[in-house]
Amino acid sequence: EGVHYLSLVTDAYSRKIMGYELSDEMKATDVVKALDMAIESRQYQRSTIHHSDRGLQYCSKVYQEKLNKNDIKPSMTDGYDCYQNALAERINGILKQEFLLYDCKDLEELRHLDEESIFIYNEMRPHLSLGMSTPNQVHKKSQVRTHLAFN
Q1: Contact 30/23 with Cβ under 8 angstroms?
Q2: Which among 50, 119, 136, 141 would be 20 to 30 A from 8, CA to CA?
């Protein structure tokens, strides 16, 4: 059915995918949906920085307004060097190389595969960089530490 785009919002500390949106276009409103999911799933309020490349969707008024409304500071690469957004590139590579391995017949099948892949990535796939813990295990531990630190 053509090209599709998967927008991801990831917690840099835990590597957990916090929000995502699959679409057949790369519109600013689509990436805002991934950001909305991440904002809704936040379980703690602390200073937050959103780092991205310089894609038009991230520079858009609607996206920047959403960041500002939620007190999230924007940060962008200073050029188009993939190493400046290495975490996002790494996660994209993991999803493509380990999970999204076959062509789906339609958008709904791809949507189901994406949801399943993100679940497995967050809940079951250990990361060497996380001491062989899963992103969700590390994310939960950081919430407990934050909660205890502010009690």
Answers
A1: yes
A2: 141
